């Protein structure tokens, strides 16, 4: 079992940056693929980025490609999502999650954090 805790959210102006962290408990994190998702008010949860357990593979939603970067530090059981050139439409609660396979499908992720709010003003 893996427990996940996100941090690093906040309020920024358009064009600004944030760095989200996802701290995991449980060594199983090191061999699990993980993803970042977001959910805006009144909308469904959507895929943002994924990274394989080794960090060798990454994948991004088209809406964030070139602006967001996902990474992980398995030695410290932590994953990161760097958010650059933020836009108002990036406003959402951001979640990290782990899955047994490299996937963009929300239903295939087993464990989720509680989320961290990102608010981007114009």
| Portion in helices | under 10%
H and E string? EEEEEEEEEEE
Mean pLDDT across residues: 96
DSSP, total strands: 11
Number of DSSP helical runs = 0
Query: In angstroms, what separates the terminal alpha carbons?
Result: 40 Å
Q: Gyration radius, to the nearest Å?
A: 13 Å
Give the strand content: over 45%
Low confidence ranges: none
Biggest sheet descriptor: 7 strands, mixed
What is the structural class? mainly beta
What characteristic shape results from the CA principal axes? globular
Topology (SSEs and partners):
Blueprint (H helix, E strand, L loop, with lengths): L2 E5 L2 E4 L4 E8 L7 E7 L6 E6 L6 E3 L7 E6 L4 E6 L8 E8 L11 E2 L3 E6 L1
Parallel strand pairs: 2-11
Antiparallel strand pairs: 1-3, 3-8, 4-5, 4-9, 5-6, 7-8, 9-10, 9-11
Task: Give an account of the 3D structure.
By secondary structure, the protein is mostly beta strands. Helix content is 0%, strand content 50%. Strands 2, 4, 5, 6, 9, 10 and 11 form a seven-stranded mixed sheet that branches. Strand 4 and strand 5 (46-51) form a beta hairpin. It is globular. It starts with a strand and ends with a strand. 33% of the residues are buried. The mean pLDDT is 96.
